[in-house]
Input
Amino acid sequence: MANERTYPTLPCRELDESISFYESLGFKRTYRQIRPNPYAVVALEEIQIHLFGMDGFNPADSYGSVIIAVPDPDSLYRDFASKLRNTYGKLPVSGIPRITRPRKKYGTVSGFSVVDPGGNWLRIYKLGDTEQEDSAKETEGLAGFINVAARLGDAHGDEALALKTLESGLKRFPEAPAIERVKAYLYRAELAVRTKNLELAKSSFALAKSLKLTEDEKASIADEFTHVDGLLKQE
Output
């Protein structure tokens, strides 16, 4: 067999609300019906997503999830983020809908996620990436806590537990390498924005900026500083 295709069918509360959201990301509506049941198809090049309306559906209870493998997730994120800012006036990083920034998940594939108005997770990964066992370095010390926090906050959407995990790691490893503490503070700042704790977000960002890094370390984490700074400015 060849040329097979599989299309996810995701639930939503309001069909037109979900269609509009996908159109804001650059998708085109290719099909829509109301009877005998609400159903629509949106497409972005080779990505096709089928939507169906469900009376009484609560997006917060959705278990819908689909993995989308693309050649360049970073470029797609920048495009989606720009379009979402234009639509919402800021980057939606909490609630439904929302988007998470690209993050290399220690030992796993890299990518980002979009949660649509139906509460469905679009997990965008790099084409060709494969799941791998965490290396010893990535599971030890503060880096290991950052690893777990990222899985909780970005893959499961449990920001509160992710914050608790980071706090535990920072308390347990106060002498961790500066670059690891900076990463922890920056992610804590991001999680704090997502949980509407602006005071914690600002203090965490200030701590991240106060630590001394080498020029190479600064370059490696520049995008994260820019991302968190942008989140704070939009609040």
User: Anything to note?
Assistant: The two ends are 52 Å apart (CA to CA).
